[in-house]
Amino acid sequence: MPRSSSDNPTARFSPELEDAILTVNAVAATSATGPLVRTTVERRDLGPRDILIEIRYAGICHSDIHTVRGEWGDVAYPLTVGHEIVGLVAEVGPEVSRHAVGDRVGVGCMVNSCRECANCRAGQEQYCENGNTGTYGSIDRDGTVTQGGYSTHIVVDEDFVLRVPESIPYEAAAPLLCAGITTYSPLAHWKAGPGRKVAVVGLGGLGHLAVKIAVAMGAEVTVLSQTLGKKDDGLAFGAQSYHATGDTATFEALRNSFDLIVNTVSAPIDIAAYLRLLRLDGTLVSVGAPPEPLPVPVFALFGNRRSFAGSSIGGIAETQEMLDFCAERGIAPEVEVIGADEVDEAYERVLRSDVRYRFVIDIDTLR
Q1: Based on the domain organization, do 72 and 185 belong to the same domain?
Q2: Is the per-residue pLDDT at 267 higher than 90?
Q3: By the 8 A CB rule, do 86 and 323 touch?
Q4: What is the CA 122 to chain-centroid distance, rounded?
Q5: Band of the pLDDT at 21, cuts 50, 70, 90?
Q6: Dihedral, 301, 305, 308, 311 alpha carbons, nearest 10
Q7: What is the CATH number of the domain that holds 294?
Q8: What are phi and psi of 92, to 5 degrees?
Q9: Contact 281/309 with Cβ under 8 angstroms?
Q10: 131 — phi, psi (to 5°)?
Q11: Do 365 and 176 contact (CB within 8 A), yes or no?
C-alpha cells in the first residue's frame, strides 16, 4: 500500500518504493448484472513522468453505469470504473515538473493519448486519431486494462493530471472532471455568451452544470425538462425560464427560439421536435449518450440551416480552463456524498433521477 502524503508531505519517488505501490483497495464490477464488490487492483510502478495520486473523492457518472452493465460494448470484467477523480499527489517520478507532493489534483476521462496525431498536437487529445486511453476499460501502455477511480490510489502520467483550485470544495470538484468539461466544451465551442439564447435539455447531473456554466458565460438560459418538478432549482441556478417538454404546447411556443440547445439526457428524444426550436444557423448538440441510435430526419435540418452535432469531453488544456473558470465564478456541482458500500444503491437512484445532482464517493470509506 502506498504511503499517505499526510505521512510524509515531502516524500518523492525513490526506487525502493516501487514494490510498495502495486495493490490498492477498490470497488469493481464482476459482471453486467451482479453487484459491485470490494476488491483490490494493481497499479503500475511509477515511471519517470508518473504521479501517484491518493484519491479522496470519486464521482459517479452515468457512463459508469452504461459501462459496467455492458450497454456500450464488451467489458473485461472485473472492472473498476470512475473517471471523476480528485485527490492529493502522494509520490512523483523524478522527471515530473508540473505537480508536487501535496498538491490538489484531478483526473478526468482519459489518462493518455498518442501525442502525435493532428488532434493531439492541437490540444484535442479527447479526439486522438489513434484513440485516447480511457481512465478505465482501455488498454494501458503496459498492456493491462485501465482501472478507474473507485479506488484509493491511481498512477497517471503528469500530462493528464489537472490542478484543482483551492476555492472549489474538494468533494464537489470531482464531477467537474467529466460532467463539468462535458458541458463546458460545447458551450465554449458554440460560443454561449451575451446575446445568445441557450436551452439545456434535462436538469440532471450534466444539465445542472450546463445551466450554471452557460449562465456564467452570459447566455440567456432556458431549461427544457420532462416536468416542472425541478423548476425552482433551475431558476435558482440562473436559468431565466423553464418549460416542460411533456407538454406538447412547449414545442409550439418555443419554435425558432434558440441559438444552441445542449441535450444532456441519456435517453432517446424526438430530434425533429428539438431541431425545430432552433433559429437560423442554430445547433442542437448531444452530450448525453443513450445506448439506442437517435434517428435524425434530414428535412428538420433544412429549415433555418440547422445543425445536429455531438461533443465529447475537452482536451487537457480546456479542462484546466474549465476548472479555473468555475473557481473564478464560484461554480460547483450539487453533490451527495456516499460511502463505497452505497454505490449499487446510488446507481439505481441515478436511473430513477433520484439525486440532486451528482453522487460522489468518499474514498476514505475504502481505506
Answers
A1: no
A2: no
A3: no
A4: 21
A5: low
A6: 180
A7: 3.40.50.720
A8: -135, 150
A9: no
A10: 85, 120
A11: no
164 and 28 together in one domain: yes
Is the peptide bond prior to 136 cis by the omega test (within 30 degrees of 0)? Answer: no
* Residue 82 CB coordination number (10 Å): 28
Closest CA to 217 of 241, 239, 193, 199: 193
Task: With residue 200 as reference, give the H or E element that holds it.
Answer: strand 197-201
Q: Which three cell numbers stand for residue 246?
A: 411533456
In the chain, pLDDT over 90 holds for what percent of residues? 88
pLDDT of residue 294: 85
Specify whether 187 is located in the same domain as 156. Answer: no
Which grid coordinates belong to 80? Answer: 473498476
User: Do 164 and 212 have their domain in common?
Assistant: no
Do 188 and 200 lie in a common domain?
yes
Same domain, 200 and 262: yes
Q: Would you call the peptide bond into 78 cis, given omega within 30 degrees of 0 as the criterion?
A: yes
Residue 142 is classified by DSSP as: T
| Within-domain flag for 325 | no
Average pLDDT of 204-232?
97
Cα dihedral sign for 249, 250, 256, 257?
positive
Domains held by the chain: number: 2
Q: Both 235 and 113 in a single domain?
A: no
Q: What digits encode the pLDDT tens for the residues 127-181?
A: 999 999 999 999 998 888 999 999 999 999 999 999 999 999 999 999 999 999 9
Residue 104, C-alpha cell as written in the block: 490538489
| 0.85 surpassed by pTM | yes
How far apart, in Å, are the Cα atoms of 233 and each of 63, 137, 236, 237, 296? 24, 35, 5, 6, 31
C-alpha 329/C-alpha 216 separation (Å) is: 7
Residue 57 bridge partners (DSSP): 86, 362
| Domain with 71 in it | 15-178+314-320+331-366
Q: Is residue 4 assigned to a domain? A: no
Residue 115 lies in a domain: yes
pLDDT digits (tens, 9 = 90+) for 95-115: 999 999 999 999 999 999 999
